[in-house]
């Protein structure tokens, strides 16, 4: 299950459609506070996909920090068309994707991150992803 956090309804809908077409279930939030509430009430989320720039008390970076602190095994993918984050500065199961993004490589990124978490949980050796 992928939690999509994006305040722009049309962009969120496109991400949901891409995830569903790739076989992923989705949950949606339009802001960081709603995303945290969803995460508190569900245990089936394996990846959070969030926009960096969001209005409200939590932007996407603040949300990612809180999610990583509370649920360190969750994969997080952040996206923005305004800022650019250096991948080398992000924790292992974090990725940054610049907007506008192509959905096929994005779904590949999601798949690799979700599978790497599964391998960690069952203690199988894993290769490092360099997305």
Automatic annotation (TrEMBL):
Q: Which SUPFAM superfamilies match?
A: CheY-like
Domain Response regulatory per the UniProt entry, residue ranges: 1-114
Q: Keywords, A to Z? A: Phosphoprotein, Transcription, Transcription regulation
Q: Name one GO biological process term.
A: phosphorelay signal transduction system
- Name the UniProt record assigns to this protein: Response regulator
PANTHER family assigned: RESPONSE REGULATORY DOMAIN-CONTAINING PROTEIN, STRESS RESPONSE REGULATOR PROTEIN 1
Checking InterPro entries in the record gives:
Bact_response_regulator, CheY-like_superfamily, Sig_transdc_resp-reg_receiver
